[in-house]
Amino acid sequence: MKHYLGYYLSNMRIAILGQIQYRAQNYFYMVGTILEPTVYLVVWSTIANSQGGSVGGYTTGALAAYYIVWTLVRQMNVVFTPYGWEGRIQRGQLSGELLRPVHPIHSDISYFAGWKFVQIFLWLPLGAVLALIFKPVLHPTWFQVVAFFFAIWGAFLVRTMLYASLGMISFWTTRVGAIFELVFALELILGGRLVPMTLMPDWVQHVAAVFPFQWTFYFPINTLVGNPGVSEILSGLGMQVLWIAIGIVFVNIIWHFGIRRFSSVGN
Amino acid sequence: MPEPVINVKDISKHYKVPVREAGLKAAARSLFKRTYNIVKAVDQISFTIEPGEVVGFLGPNGAGKTTTLKMLSGLLFPTAGAPDVLGFQPSRRQPDFLRQITLVMGNRSQMAWDLPALDSFELQRAIYGVPRPDFEKTRDEFIELLEVKELVKKPVRNLSLGERMKMEIIGALLHRPKVLFLDEPTIGLDVTMQRRIRQFIAEYNQKYGATVLLTSHYMADVEALCKRVIVIHNGKLLFDGDLSVMKDRFSAFKTIGVTLANGFSMFSQYGEVLNQEAGHVTLRIPREKTPEVTARILAEQQVDDLTVEDPPIEDIIEKVFNLKSAEGDVK
Fold first, then answer.
1. CA-CA 20 to 30 A from A216: which of A21, A154, B257, B292?
2. Those residues with Cβ within 8 angstroms of residue B2's Cβ, 6 or more apart along the chain or in another chain
3. What angle do CA A262, A263, A265 make, to 5 degrees?
4. What chain B residue is nearest to A9 in terms of C-alpha separation?
5. How far apart are the first and last CA of chain A?
6. CATH: 3.20.20.100, 2.40.160.20, 3.10.180.10, 3.40.50.300. Which one for B6-247?
7. Which residues of chain B does A9 touch, with a Cβ-Cβ cutoff of 8 Å?
């Protein structure tokens, strides 16, 4: 355990040092991720204003809070993508990681966890500008703030496991981009990424309940900007733990069979 | 007699590769009926390596050298056979096994590109859980041996190919592995850099008693480091033994170079004249006649200098490939 802690801290440090070198790229990437919810925010604010100031119980101030916190959660949700897995499997880049006495998933988690510190630092001024423009309304309790902290890390781990499992399909097939895009579309609709889940039809919410997506977007955002009770928050955190556990099982099973097919081409 | 560090018995690695003719018709047909070829990258090879040995693993491109190294380091699952390295089955990739080996590939980088190598070394320490005092002692020792005290502070992207290779080797050995798999460690490097890396590998082998399995297309690497060589071609093992034995067995000729004291003389009576210019003659003599011909030249000519050499190792290895492939003789 001490060994893993040391490794995580070292790799997080490498990520911070490395990503500081790419601060301009990080900033442009972040601006790109902020444009998406800004469009949603403008559209929904317009609808809310046309309906007397609110839509589905969300006022314009609450919508602003939802989508601005969305931008923060999005930074936390950046994980090693399935495309990254595809590249490292198809082009043999996985070889270097296989030689280490640590599973590659630890490298991904620790590196991206370290990167978060750079992302959040760069996000702060952008978040402030968005707040000045759109004037979000949120009144979280201290419990909500603490729960939000755990929820965004939970979201990061749920998404890491989900996309690692997905990316490892590349052990069997050469091109899996189409499958990835399908999952990204599902995440958009069923995760609270497009609109808050409560604005979705009931049947969509029922479908979403059997997928992990809402625990990566809607749940952490709602934990901070909504009015969830203590039990709702705790059961949500519990659901994140459950999905992380499911993800770990999936990653291990897929890895166990997939790694036998790894041909280590070119490296 | 110590137990072999590496024990390989009849391991194979076969790949199923889809094949089709060129053109639209063949592409359409392959949608319904795919044809596969079985490529035998490695085919039932066996050998053992004792602790502390440095063995050259030779063969042309595509012979199966790298595939074998990958199976021995746990990157690839063998199609058949189960190699044993340090008492472990490599494909299980147990942490205790991975902590005792390293695989250095000349075309692969483990260094963080934008950071000084010192930062990557620190990460290696954490990955392998090396105690800090041991790590610092080893790191400083390697930095001094490879003379890179200033280079380790520069971002890796600003280093030359040879300098980067030095960093790769330091990073790969910081956990002091007992078994080194080196795949073309000097590829693309200039002669000076090649020599420095060879010396470093030799010093590491002597100091830590490490076992080394080395592939290289630079025969200078092999001659400087390896007493024993294993030759592989088309996935099959062609020769396993001392380099000197291979030279004796597969080089039918020796080269005699003579520098004459009195200029020009007829030398075709002694053997095939390969080159003759400005008082220097190069002859090719059947190996068994070399002592006799040398004695005759010294007795009959006014000689300033005379050298007897084996043909270049590249020529000998090519001969092994040609002879053994023609015979279909596989050890």
1. A21
2. B50, B51
3. 130
4. B126
5. 31
6. 3.40.50.300
7. 126
b/e string for B290-313 if b means 16 or more Cβ within 10 A?
beebbeebeeebeeeeeeeeebeb
The two three-digit tokens of residue B152, written as one number:
């380790």
How many helical (H) and strand (E) elements, i.e. helices and strands, does chain B have?
A: 11, 13
* Nearest residue on chain A to B123, alpha-carbon basis: A10
pTM, entire model: 0.84
C-alpha closest to that of B181 among B113, B64, B102, B294: B102
Question: What is the edge-to-edge ordering of all strands in the sheet holding B280-286?
Answer: B272-277, B280-286, B253-260, B303-309
Nearest-angstrom CA–CA distance, B163 and B152: 9
What long-range pairs does A29-37 form, CB within 8 A, spacing at least 24?
Answer: A30/A75, A30/A119, A30/A122, A30/A123, A30/A126, A31/A126, A33/A71, A33/A74, A33/A75, A34/A71, A34/A74, A34/A126, A34/A130, A36/A74, A37/A67, A37/A68, A37/A70, A37/A71, A37/A74
Kindly tell me if the per-residue pLDDT of A174 is higher than 80: no
pLDDT at B36: 83
Of B15, B108, B115, the CB nearest to A17: B115
Answer yes or no: do A101 and B77 touch at CB < 8 A: no
With contact defined as beta carbons under 8 Å apart, do B110 and B123 qualify?
Answer: no
User: Is there a contact between B95 and A99 (Cβ–Cβ < 8 Å)?
Assistant: no
Radius of gyration of chain A (CA): 19
CA distance B309 to B287: 10
ipTM of this predicted structure:
0.84
At B251 the pLDDT is 76
Q: In Å, how far from its chain's centre is CA A198?
A: 20
